[in-house]
Amino acid sequence: MARIGDDLLVVAIVALLVAAGLGALGRLRAARRASIVAALSSALAVGVLGSALLRSDFSLTYVADQSRRGASAPLRLAGLWGGPEGSLLLWGAMLAGWVAIGVAGRARSGATSDERRSQGASIALGALAAAVPLATCWWWADPFDRLAIPALDGGGLVPILDHPAMLVHPPLLYAALTALVVPYALVAGSAIVRSEQVAPSVVRRWLLTSWTGLAAALLLGAAWAYAELGWGGYWAWDPVESSALVPWLLITAWLHHEVRVGPTGGGRLGLALAVSPFVLTAAGTALTRSGALSSVHAFAESITVGRALGAGAALVLATAVAATVRAEAAAPSSVTSLRDWLLVIQVALLALAAGTVVLGTIWPLVAGDDVTTVDGSFYSGVLGPLLPLVVAGTGLALLPAGGRWRWAPGAVGTLVGAVACTGGPAVLVAAGAAGGGAIGCLVVAQRGPSPPHRATVVAHVGAIVLLVAIAASTTSQTSAVSVEPGASVRVAGWTVRNEGVEARTMRPGVDAVIADLVVSAPGAGAQHLSPRLDRHRTSGTLLAETAVRTTWREHVRIVLLDAADSGRVLLQVDVQPGVPWIWLGAVLIVAGGALAVRRRGDGATSPQSSSL
Predict the structure, then answer these.
(1) 571 pairs with which residues across the strands?
(2) What contacts 452, CB < 8 A, 6 or more positions away?
(3) What is the C-alpha to C-alpha distance for residues 468 and 376, in angstroms, rounded to an integer?
(4) Consecutive H or E run containing 281
(5) What does the pLDDT look like over 86-138, one tens digit per residue?
(6) Number of helices and strands (H, E) in the chain?
(7) What is the DSSP string of 323-386?
(8) Do 238 and 197 meet the contact criterion of CB atoms below 8 Å apart?
(9) How many Å apart are CA 306 and CA 385, to the nearest integer?
(10) How far is CA 291 from CA 135, 295, 299, 313, 340, in A?
(11) What is the mean pLDDT of the chain?
């Protein structure tokens, strides 16, 4: 089976190179067939590796490293994306699949000469972008390498990956990020040959699909991180997290730019915003897999793999720059109203946020040995003061471009938001006031002559709720407390009582020490929580599983740090205002994106009814 997997990889790589060459020559039908062969071959290679994981074929080095006999079938299959070689194979296979579906799949017979040149260039760019990770996988990170003597059992997933979210979050994130190859290839290919054959609605559909998938994947990843000790709450600014957030911010900037310029593509700025998400995705993949940046995610540090992927990212960047330079400069669009100015500011702020995340991510490389990571204080210090402006603009930018504004809902919302947040720091009060005013402006927009689509309203309400909740979460209080059996402590108005400790086997290979706590507050009642420490026998790793008490206003998150034989426990108690609303805001954003993707037709013809 291992030999079959390697052979399928070679077939996929050769087919992609053939598709690129045929596309460049304008032989679209043959190029499309070659891309289909590549997609099927790479998918079958993934299937071969997945089958080996499910069968516990420990003659393969990768299976012995990422799987174990006692694991459930879903977690054995999750080993496919749990290690560097398998995840790189899956990444390349997804790229090949999207190229076959979204790029080569658009090529049709009977196209004009201009259309053939555009489609051929797009196929060539997409096929080359997919060939690089598959070739890297085959040559330097082969998941089908065999052991001289088969192992009796495997090591299994890294303990922190031994979690139900592992079954959904990584593949969804990969699918959303790799789908960005389609708008990159279509837009860059057309621009390089100076063609305008790609309909803006097609680019919008793919960017919106990726945007929605990324939002859902980031939400799942944040929820996963929140439940695991050491991942920094719901967001740790890890390089892998940041490299997924940057494309989402840039797509958001493109969507706002499109609202202002209409369905025309937006000239060079629109082109740059459309192709840059995939450019930075390729660059982020190379950095996070090279070991150049410190990360808690389980990718092996391979300088060789990083250099190979870096060469592919450089190729993607070069073609994106060439496309931007060769693109037709659009006629300057006038900025005549406050709404237009707000949209311009929103695009600039989103681009600034993306640039700040990029700078913070690569800063350890720039600073050298003096800095290993950049924590959240850097981002909050740079972007925190701009948060109220972003929140306010989220609603104001949807107001009608002309006509009389009704200020009452916005003014009332501003007042209510300010009063609701008077117990917090200045940034929270400002963000709350801006959020209330922005939601009031959404009410005004719904009454205008051309109201925004419900997808737009849902996504923007979600963004307002999310941003204000993040501001609220900055007022969190964290305490480390030691509690004897039967004793209680008070933290930020909450009482935590220790009812005792027990040891239990949670599942094969995992033993746990569990604290029985009763958490209560005036008016909130009492609730039992059971934070625990899991010990994974194979690796000897201790991993804390948190427990959370949720109210409409805040989370009380408790981490068991240590437990003594006497029953005394050492706890970390985090009282976090606003965090429940972070999840609600994120869910609304995903729902808004899903509604926008489901819309039929070519999308909006007026900025007020744009797709998002």
Answers:
(1) 481, 560
(2) 398, 445, 446, 608, 609, 610
(3) 17
(4) helix 267-290
(5) 999 999 999 999 999 999 998 776 677 888 899 999 999 999 999 999 999 99
(6) 19, 10
(7) HHHHSPPPPPPP--SHHHHHHHHHHHHHHHHHHHHHHHHHHHHHHGGG-S---HHHHHHHHGGG
(8) no
(9) 36
(10) 19, 8, 8, 16, 43
(11) 87
| CB-count exposure of residue 561 (10 Å: 0-12, 13-18, 19+) | middle
**Type of residue at 467:** L
Which residue, among 217, 578, 292, has the nearest Cα to 432 in the 3D structure?
Answer: 578
Q: Minimal CA–CA distance to 252: which of 343, 380, 337, 357? A: 343
Q: Residue 304: what are its φ and ψ, rounded to 5°?
A: -65, -45
Instruction: Look up residue 494 and give its two tokens.
Output: 């909450």
CA distance 26 to 115: 10
Q: Return the closest-CA partner of residue 345 out of 304, 380, 391.
A: 391
pLDDT at 212: 97
Q: Pick from 556, 567, 552, 493: which is nearest to 529 by CA?
A: 556
CB 285 within 8 A of CB 317: no
**Residue 501 burial (C-beta neighbours within 10 Å; 0-12, 13-18, 19+):** buried
Contact 30, 22 (CB under 8 A): yes
Nearest alpha carbon to residue 591 among 458, 461, 465: 458
The residue ranking higher by pLDDT, 472 or 112, is 472
Q: Are 278 and 264 contacting, i.e. CB atoms less than 8 angstroms apart?
A: no
Which residues 6+ apart lie within 8 Å of 59 measured at CB? 2, 146, 147, 150, 151
Our CA dihedral for 406, 411, 416, 421, rounded to 10 degrees, sits at 130
CA atoms of 539 and 595, how far apart (whole Å) = 44
Are the C-beta atoms of 533 and 522 separated by less than 8 Å?
Answer: no
Q: How far apart are CA 508 and CA 510, in angstroms?
A: 6
Q: What is the pTM of this model?
A: 0.93
Cα–Cα distance measured from residue 556 to residue 519, given in angstroms and rounded to the nearest whole number: 9
Describe the crossing of helices 181-192 and 303-326 by its angle, rounded to 10 degrees: 50
> Which of 255, 182, 183, 251 shows the shortest CA–CA distance to 218?
251
CB 23 within 8 A of CB 130: no
Task: Give the other-Cβ count within 10 Å of 350's Cβ.
Answer: 22
User: Rounded distance, CA 128 to CA 311, Å?
Assistant: 12
Q: Is 316 exposed, middle or buried (0-12, 13-18, 19+ CB in 10 A)?
A: buried
Using CA atoms, how far residue 598 sits from 112, 251, 257, 442, 593, in Å, is 30, 18, 21, 22, 9
- 494 neighbors 483 (Cβ within 8 angstroms): no
Token couple for 159: 């303990």
DSSP letter at 228 equals: B
Computed on alpha carbons and rounded to an integer, the radius of gyration of the chain in Å comes to 26
d(CA 490, CA 477): 12
Taking the C-alpha atoms of residue 346 and residue 342, their distance in angstroms, rounded to an integer, is: 6
- pLDDT (tens digit, 9 = 90+) per residue, 216-262? 999 999 998 888 866 668 888 888 889 999 999 999 999 988 887 76
